[in-house]
Amino acid sequence: SNDRDLPGEEVAPGLRLTQAFHAAPDIPDMLDGSFARREAIHTGNTLFFDTETTGLAGGVGTRAFMIGAADWVDSQLRVRQLTTTSTGAEAAMLEAFRTWIRPDTLLVSYNGRSYDAPLLAGRFRLARMGAPLQGIDHLDLLHPTRRRYKGRWEHCRLGTIERYALGVVREDDLPGSEAPAAWLGYLRGGSADPLRGVFRHNHQDVVTLSTLLLHLAN
To answer: How far apart (Å, rounded) are the C-alpha atoms in residues 190 and 91?
Structure first.
């Protein structure tokens, strides 16, 4: 009785969508953007995003198998995750993610300008789906975080900042480095348990991005 259950619902063959909401009642319409050397940030336009990929090198064979995104909607933080459970579902995942982006979207990531965004842009290109990320504003929180906390801790990984600056301690989390094996194991018919750990990890990443933005802007 192999455990194959994953959260969410199948929205296309081999593509799952999960959605969750967290109370976020006191989010201002505008945040001071000076910490990132920019104008005010419209919180209604922000889309926090993070990918889980088949390899950390980011080479040509690397693809995203999960895209997590969070945004503030009606006094709540909405967290949506797209996950492929077959290699043929990538185009459907990219198409769904594309519909979450508007011309006025501000993408917010952690190292996403160097890693996640170019990776997705490459996959859009390979799928002949144009360049939906081109011209979209992108705030990478890694750089202002480094400026603020440089030399304070051993490194500025998101988990470190989360623990020491934001006071978030993860329980029952699967490290990102184990995500590729969790996904491949599931594709090959293995247990869903490690992949459910990836869901939790990715979910926490985008929630943490929203917390970190508020922290830096204050």
So the answer is: 24
Taking a C-beta distance cutoff of 8 angstroms, is the pair 82, 66 a contact?
Answer: yes
Distance CA 29, CA 32 (A): 10
Instruction: Return the pLDDT at 81.
Output: 98
Task: Say how far apart CA 109 and CA 46 lie, in whole Å.
Answer: 10
140 band by pLDDT with thresholds 50, 70 and 90: very high
Task: Tokens 């459910």: give the residue.
Answer: 196
* Burial of 162 (C-beta count, 10 Å sphere; 0-12/13-18/19+): buried
Tell me which amino acid residue 217 is.
Answer: A
DSSP string, 13-71: TTEEEEEEEEE-TT--SEE--GGGTSS-EEGGGEEEEEEEES-SS--TT--EEEEEEEE
Burial group, residue 183, by CB count within 10 angstroms (0-12, 13-18, 19+): buried
What integer pLDDT is reported at residue 153 of this predicted model? Answer: 80
Quickly state the pLDDT bin for 121 (edges 50, 70, 90): very high
